[in-house]
Design a protein that fits this description.
With 313 residues, the chain is of the alpha/beta class. Helices cover 39% and strands 21% of the residues. It has 12 helices and 14 strands. Helix 9 packs across helix 10. InterPro entries: PDH/Transketolase (IPR051157), THDP-binding (IPR029061), Transketo_C/PFOR_II (IPR009014), Transketolase-like_Pyr-bd (IPR005475), Transketolase_BS (IPR020826), Transketolase_C (IPR033248).
């Protein structure tokens, strides 16, 4: 069953506000689009709208954090990660301040809004910053777990979410921690590591591969920085081949991070599924995933290629 990221996010934010009286929420004139109006109605003195100025948004959050508050910046991924990147680096990462950035509408799933709104580079940017943790949620249950974990952690963190509907991957409350991951399927032939909305596609690919006699492990790699190194190393040794899948540029994202780690610890073939050095365009999420080869069929084909590269078939 598909459920809304945005509807769940406001529930998670309200829950966090109850647990942390010093938590405040900031937006750049996007409260209605992000369904934050419920928060402002309940906590009018804990909501800050800085207007359409994302650089001020980030700088204001940094300043508030120095007073003992926990600022949660919420906005479209393009406008809370890429537009104010200098302020994120200088005002949050460098002084290692306790600011949380929650980025909605990430990747091609923004759909008809087009290339200007499709953040395909945000993971690559944020994971280069010292002190930052970088996460991606696969569904609404994980969104709640991620918010809870981020608020409990003292330091800067970035959470990447989709636009709206996501298929349920998890039914019950789940663990979520920096450096964590979920082994959703265990197979011996190839490992598929995915994050965000691509976890659903990875699971579908594993089912299709199973029908052909190929047993794939599937990892929900929700912690992109730090990586779930122990699990990645284990599966590299067990399966000898990897596929990574993300709604992001191939360059610098989850696939790049995994390639960097495995090349230095346990070199195995890695095929990356992601946008291949192109800007996006307007279209439905399904159509864009097909055009840019981010579907379950594309993941399954990549898995077979990775297996051939290790000489098994």
């Amino acid at each position: 069953m598909k459920k809304s990221f945005r509807s769940t996010l406001i529930d998670a934010i309200l829950s966090g506000a109850e647990e942390y009286p010093n938590m405040v929420v900031l937006n750049a004139d996007s409260a209605r689009a992000l369904k934050l109006t419920d928060f402002s109605a309940k906590y009018p003195d804990r909501m800050y709208n800085v207007g359409i100025s994302e650089t001020d948004l980030v700088s204001t959050a940094a300043g508030l954090s120095t007073t003992g508050l926990i600022p949660v910046v919420v906005g479209f991924s393009m406008f809370v990660s890429e537009k104010p990147f200098e302020q994120i680096r200088q005002a949050i990462a460098y002084p290692n301040l306790n600011v949380k950035i929650v980025a909605t509408h990430s990747g091609l799933c923004v759909g008809q809004d087009g290339a200007t709104h499709q953040a395909l580079e945000d993971i690559a940017l944020l994971r280069t910053l010292p002190n930052f943790k970088v996460f991606a949620a696969a569904d609404v249950t994980e969104t709640k777990a991620a918010m809870k974990a981020m608020l409990a952690y003292d330091g800067p963190a970035y959470l990447r979410l989709g636009r709206d509907l996501a298929e349920d991957i998890f039914e019950d409350e789940k663990p979520f921690r920096p450096g964590g991951a979920d082994l959703l399927r265990n197979g011996s032939d190839v490992t598929i590591a995915a994050c965000g909305l691509m976890v659903e596609q990875a699971l579908m690919a594993a089912v299709a591969l199973k029908s052909e006699g190929i047993n794939a492990s599937v990892i929900n790699a929700y912690s992109i920085k730090p990586l779930p190194e122990e699990l990645l190393l284990q599966k590299a040794k067990e399966t000898g081949a990897f596929v990574t899948a993300e709604d992001h540029m191939k360059t610098g994202g989850l696939g790049g991070a995994i390639c960097e780690y495995l090349s230095e610890t346990c070199p195995v073939p890695v095929i990356r599924i992601g946008v291949d050095d192109h800007f996006g365009e307007s279209g439905t999420q399904d159509d864009l995933y097909k055009k840019y080869r981010l579907t379950a069929d594309d993941i399954a084909a990549a898995a077979k290629k990775a297996i051939r590269m290790k000489g098994l078939v």
